[in-house]
Amino acid sequence: MSALAAQSLIHSEAQAIDDCWNRIGIYGDKSCPLLPQHIHCRNCDTYAAAATRLLDRYSFEQQSQELYAPQAHEQKVATCSLVIFRLSEEWLGLPTRCLDEVAPMQTIHSLPHQRSRALRGVANVRGTLVPCLSLVELLGLDPATPGASSQRVMPRMLIVAAHGGAVVLPVDEVDGIHNIAEGDINAASLSGEHVSAKYTRGVLQWKTRSLRLLDEEQLLSAITWSLT
């Protein structure tokens, strides 16, 4: 019997109980012809039988919950929330716990005498100047070829909570925020071209794509180092 069928049976059983004590008994208008004989409804066989059925219903409901609760628990799959985005022709995933916001692309203002190759300048985020870093430079990727993508896409800025404060990371495209099973993430491994990839936890197949999982702590440390 399914959980839905069990709940339906419990509901039907509850409706079948005649609570005559509330209508014509001690809690009603006291018109029951048996009331003078029993003095109180609790002394009546009808009341006792209804109480027994009520207890049986609660017992059945408890058994139903115990029977189906483990199955519901087993269906829960632990997931990790990732923001999935593209740089050049590569798709990457970063845990959203370090993500503050996905924002439209803003003008990046270059800074004189920049000491870091990854530092592109600063961007205005809600009235505050925030350092802007190149993920392509940090990860050692090949720069995007102009017009390489046949689809119309809109570049975005990932505003990340780094160790020293917010940092802007421009990306070529954002697919969205997705929950990926932790089992798949833990099973992700490095192979081939990704063996020596920087700040990479692993690679897994996601939909029809090869998704590179970034190591959050390593990347944030690299960002901090690039700004010092």
TrEMBL record:
Keyword Cytoplasm: yes
Annotated compartments: Cytoplasm
Family matches, as InterPro entries: CheW (IPR039315), CheW-like_dom_sf (IPR036061), CheW-lke_dom (IPR002545)
PROSITE patterns, per the entry: CHEW
Source superkingdom: Bacteria
Predominant location: cytoplasm
Keywords associated with the record: Cytoplasm
Domain CheW-like: 79-225
Protein name, UniProt field: Chemotaxis protein CheW
Species of the source: Pseudomonas bubulae
